[in-house]
Each structure stands twice: as structure tokens, then as C-alpha cells.
């Protein structure tokens, strides 16, 4: 073999060796993809869908929880099911922070996880179960079916220490809310659509009494104030008491565009609802969604998709928890 041929052969061998780890890494970590479990657990998505249907049939409020979960988990740095972890000696659970006030039904996510584990032990992450249960919960509430990618892995620790840096509070300014979502890649119409989730569920009196006492917020519709007083008669409500106002009295169990008509009529319960209808940046989209449910659903689906893909752990990062409330090393 002459010197030129020898050099070429050596170069090809070097390139092959140098490129091998890159290809291996790509094969190892495809990132998020549609039907990630088609080979490893073909029934996974059907099991989750069936469990969501069964649980919704027995406990209607589970669907609100599925929807809130995806927001509270994915908005805080990563869609990694850190929300579901219980407190440990080192870390406070995100579930126990003020931002998570009112979140519940976590035990039903465990029910779904157990059903999946029976079929495919150690394969499907809690992070994917959280996202897919939200997708199917949205359908149960009359919302659109949103095709979502899978392949997330579970984080190993709570993010309670940074939750307030990422998750806007109900009563923060619309500017803060827009900025927080923009950091995740969600634009203004996407934010307006996501807040349409306030179409379902309820708001605890703790979160809205400052609009009633000591004086009524003049921005509130007087007809709605009477109802709010009836539901929240105490200026300092007991956080553990079942005192709340339905977000939408007309269609409280349905994800629809009635929310936008309500807030345009000054019937929004939270400061952010009122600001959404009146701020010049968001008002045009509120009007458009109030007129068209199709437009609301289109923007809602787009925003949920972006939210669900926020900085996930994939490949060899994180783990597949055996139990959603406990990292494997503590299990």
C-alpha cells in the first residue's frame, strides 16, 4: 500500500472512531418523539387514556388536577415530574409550597402509574404519565385532543427552592405572567389561551378575598360580587375549609371559551383574569377567543405542546421512577 493510500485508510479509520460516539449518543437519546413507547410498551398510552376515563367517571375533579399538573410541573425548569416528589429530609416537596395551594388528587396519578407498571415494569416515566394524563383530561373536559410527544425521564429532586422564579402567581401582574411564559417560548396569544384553563375548576376563597375585603374591588361586576360574597363570607378564610367560587358558573365542568366572555364582563375572579381582559397586549386575543372557540382551541393546543416540551430530561438523564412520589434512590 503506497503512502497516499495508507494516509487515506488511516483517515477513514480515525473518522469512523471519532464519529461512533456521536451516532451512539443520538441513537441512545432520540429526545421527545411521537409514540416513544411503541416498542417498549405498546399499550402505555391506551392504559393511561383508559385510566383517565375511569377516574374521571368516578371523580370528575380529577380532570382539573391533570390540567393543573402539567402547568405546575412543566413551567418550573423542566417537565420531569419533580412536582410529584414527596418531601425528604433535604428537600421540601413542590406540593407543599404556596404556589401549589389547592393541588390535589396526586394519589390517582399513582393509580395510573401502577396500572402501567403492571403491563411494563420500569419503562414508562412519571413525567410522561403526568403529561399524557393532562392530554386525556383535556379531552374529558371537552377540549381538543392534542398529540404530544413522549420520552421524558423523571427528575431526582424537588424544585421547590426555585418555584417562585418560574411559576407566576394568580395575582401577579400580567407583565410578569407574559415574561415567565415568554422564557419558555410561549407567546402572548399562547398565554391568553393557557389562562383559558380558568374556564374549569374553582378558586379557593383564600386567593380572592382581597378583592372583596375590606372593600370591594370596583373593577368587579356588581352582579358577580353578590355571588362571591355568598361563597366567601369570611375576610380571613380557613385554608383547609371547602370555601371556593367556581371559575365559570355557566359551564364549570367544560373547557370552553366562555371564560373570555366572563372576563370581558368583569367576572374574572383573579387579578390576572381582569388584567388579561384589559391589558392592550392581551385584550385583542381575549376578544378573538371570546368569538371563536376554534381559535381558542388552536392556540391552547399550541401552547400546551410548547409547555409539555419545556427542557425535558431524555436519554440517560434522570431515571424512570418505580413510584412517582419517591426518587428511586430513596425507594
UniProtKB/TrEMBL annotation:
<keyword id="KW-0560">Oxidoreductase</keyword>
<feature type="signal peptide">
    <location>
        <begin position="1"/>
        <end position="24"/>
    </location>
</feature>
<dbReference type="Pfam" id="PF00141">
    <property type="entry name" value="peroxidase"/>
</dbReference>
<dbReference type="GO" id="GO:0005576">
    <property type="term" value="C:extracellular region"/>
</dbReference>
<keyword id="KW-0732">Signal</keyword>
<feature type="binding site">
    <location>
        <position position="73"/>
    </location>
    <ligand>
        <name>Ca(2+) 1</name>
    </ligand>
</feature>
<keyword id="KW-1015">Disulfide bond</keyword>
<keyword id="KW-0325">Glycoprotein</keyword>
<feature type="disulfide bond">
    <location>
        <begin position="41"/>
        <end position="120"/>
    </location>
</feature>
<dbReference type="GO" id="GO:0046872">
    <property type="term" value="F:metal ion binding"/>
</dbReference>
<dbReference type="GO" id="GO:0009505">
    <property type="term" value="C:plant-type cell wall"/>
</dbReference>
<feature type="binding site">
    <location>
        <position position="168"/>
    </location>
    <ligand>
        <name>substrate</name>
    </ligand>
</feature>
<dbReference type="GO" id="GO:0042744">
    <property type="term" value="P:hydrogen peroxide catabolic process"/>
</dbReference>
<keyword id="KW-0408">Iron</keyword>
<keyword id="KW-0106">Calcium</keyword>
<feature type="disulfide bond">
    <location>
        <begin position="205"/>
        <end position="232"/>
    </location>
</feature>
<dbReference type="GO" id="GO:0048511">
    <property type="term" value="P:rhythmic process"/>
</dbReference>
<dbReference type="GO" id="GO:0006950">
    <property type="term" value="P:response to stress"/>
</dbReference>
<keyword id="KW-0090">Biological rhythms</keyword>
<feature type="binding site">
    <location>
        <position position="76"/>
    </location>
    <ligand>
        <name>Ca(2+) 1</name>
    </ligand>
</feature>
<comment type="function">
    <text>Removal of H(2)O(2), oxidation of toxic reductants, biosynthesis and degradation of lignin, suberization, auxin catabolism, response to environmental stresses such as wounding, pathogen attack and oxidative stress. These functions might be dependent on each isozyme/isoform in each plant tissue.</text>
</comment>
<keyword id="KW-0964">Secreted</keyword>
<dbReference type="GO" id="GO:0020037">
    <property type="term" value="F:heme binding"/>
</dbReference>
<dbReference type="GO" id="GO:0006979">
    <property type="term" value="P:response to oxidative stress"/>
</dbReference>
<dbReference type="InterPro" id="IPR000823">
    <property type="entry name" value="Peroxidase_pln"/>
</dbReference>
<keyword id="KW-0349">Heme</keyword>
<feature type="binding site">
    <location>
        <position position="248"/>
    </location>
    <ligand>
        <name>Ca(2+) 2</name>
    </ligand>
</feature>
<keyword id="KW-0575">Peroxidase</keyword>
<comment type="similarity">
    <text>Belongs to the peroxidase family. Classical plant (class III) peroxidase subfamily.</text>
</comment>
<dbReference type="GO" id="GO:0140825">
    <property type="term" value="F:lactoperoxidase activity"/>
</dbReference>
<dbReference type="GO" id="GO:0004601">
    <property type="term" value="F:peroxidase activity"/>
</dbReference>
<feature type="binding site">
    <location>
        <position position="80"/>
    </location>
    <ligand>
        <name>Ca(2+) 1</name>
    </ligand>
</feature>
<feature type="disulfide bond">
    <location>
        <begin position="126"/>
        <end position="324"/>
    </location>
</feature>
<dbReference type="InterPro" id="IPR033905">
    <property type="entry name" value="Secretory_peroxidase"/>
</dbReference>
<feature type="disulfide bond">
    <location>
        <begin position="74"/>
        <end position="79"/>
    </location>
</feature>
<feature type="binding site">
    <location>
        <position position="94"/>
    </location>
    <ligand>
        <name>Ca(2+) 1</name>
    </ligand>
</feature>
<feature type="binding site" description="axial binding residue">
    <location>
        <position position="198"/>
    </location>
    <ligand>
        <name>heme b</name>
    </ligand>
</feature>
<feature type="site" description="Transition state stabilizer">
    <location>
        <position position="68"/>
    </location>
</feature>
<feature type="domain" description="Plant heme peroxidase family profile">
    <location>
        <begin position="31"/>
        <end position="328"/>
    </location>
</feature>
<protein>
    <recommendedName>
        <fullName>Peroxidase</fullName>
        <ecNumber>1.11.1.7</ecNumber>
    </recommendedName>
</protein>
<feature type="active site" description="Proton acceptor">
    <location>
        <position position="72"/>
    </location>
</feature>
<feature type="binding site">
    <location>
        <position position="251"/>
    </location>
    <ligand>
        <name>Ca(2+) 2</name>
    </ligand>
</feature>
